[in-house]
Amino acid sequence: MKLLLTGGAGYIGSHVLLSCLEAGHDAIVLDDFSNSSREALTRVEALTGRHFSLYEGDIRDATMLEQIFKDNKIDAVLHFAGLKAVGESVQKPLDYYDVNVGGSVTLAKAMAQAGVYRVVFSSTASVYGDQEKMPLTEENVPGEAASPYARTKRMVEQVFEDLCISDQRWSVAILRYFNPVGAHPSGQIGEDPLGEPANLAPFAMQVAVGRRQSLAVFGDDYPTPDGTGVRDYIHVMDLAEGHLAAVNFLTKNSGFGVWNLGTGRGHSVLDVVRELENITGKPLPKRIASRRPGDTAQCWADPSRAATDLGWKAKRGLSDMLTDHWRWQEQNPKGYNK
Ligand code: NAD
Ligand code: UDP
């Protein structure tokens, strides 16, 4: 199949791109490099020995989208491009609504005009907000999402659901990622956040590699087994395989579907710290800090729907994720800037 990956140079997109090329699909990447590096794409080409087309531009540019669909006979779109920082979305809500919601609507219009009706959309476990009952099933979505970021993701889910109701040619897979961690086992591609990482694994990695002094553990008084926050960390290569399964599903089914991509297991912040210390063989400087506003105590998936419908299950555990993430970080202490 010929696949268009919006945001294909980003952390998740670049790993999915690699898996798509290795699975024999043809790929086209659209990215504005606002949060990624061309070097990621160069490395995917080197690792796979495969070439793919690149369009540098913005998903909100309708003229460019029209041209991409004219130039290429695309079978399905994997839509990763967007803004993803929860805290920033509180400060700059208009940017988030513009890029995430506006950009997705522009993309959907261009797809419909071109007669392309298959799309996989990157959603997030943040749409579940703060809940007491775990694990989270796809039906657990509360009426109101917890942040502008989560609201934009929920809105785009609803846009695609409405499209499926309005026109039966649409075939939409909403994938709600839990907490992506890890890197390709080669250590050649991985997560390369600009500025200070907002997420636990990349921050801890930068401490371990000596780029930052110590990890602040955001709260040790949550109602969890060790008092620190619990999340469902999932290996980025498992996510990549989930996308291949979703694309395969879309070729055989039409309509709207939502799937959790998680392992179904929760790990605390201190579990992550301990595991990383085992892998690096040295203690990780850390201190207990106050809770981060807006954080939830716990969050893990019920991934059984993806197993039933897509035939997909996460295969890798916390140790695999952190081992691969660390290999990337150690080989590329400054990320793609060498
Ligand atoms: P990322 O920032 O690494 O990748 C996003 C890519 O989109 C980047 O390459 C960026 O340059 C590009 N981009 C941003 N705005 C664009 C625009 N207007 N036009 C064209 N390209 C644009 O993020 P990621 O971690 O790879 O996340 C991919 C998707 O998955 C995002 O939609 C994100 O919200 C979602 N998601 C991520 C996580 C996570 O923790 N990483 C969790 C759940 C969901
Ligand atoms: N966390 C932390 N220190 C950090 C970053 C995160 O203690 O520097 C904690 C955070 O409070 C949460 C967990 O690690 O319990 C995962 O946070 P992350 O931001 O990676 O994911 P999210 O909270 O968005 O699920």
Tell me what the structure shows.
With 338 residues, the protein is of the alpha/beta class. The protein has 11 helices and 14 strands. A 7-stranded parallel beta sheet has the order 3-2-1-4-5-6-11, sandwiched between helices. The protein has a 3-stranded mixed beta sheet with strand order 12-9-14. The mean pLDDT is 97.
Q: Share of helix among residues?
A: 40-55%
Give the N-to-C terminal Cα separation: 34 Å
The ligands found in this model are: nicotinamide-adenine-dinucleotide, uridine-5'-diphosphate
Judging from the principal axes of the Cα atoms, what is the shape? globular
Count of helix runs? 11
Overall number of strands: 14
Largest sheet: 7 strands, parallel
Any idea what the CATH superfamily of one domain is called?
NAD(P)-binding Rossmann-like Domain
Mean pLDDT over all positions? 97
Report strand order across the widest sheet.
Answer: 3-2-1-4-5-6-11
**Assigned CATH architecture of one domain:** 3-Layer(aba) Sandwich
Find the CATH topology of one domain.
Rossmann fold
Q: Which structural class is indicated by helix and strand composition?
A: alpha/beta
The residue ranges in which pLDDT falls below 50 over 5 or more consecutive positions are: none
At the first level of CATH, what is the class of one domain?
Alpha Beta
From the alpha-carbon coordinates, what is the Rg to the nearest angstrom?
19 Å
Strand content: 15-25%
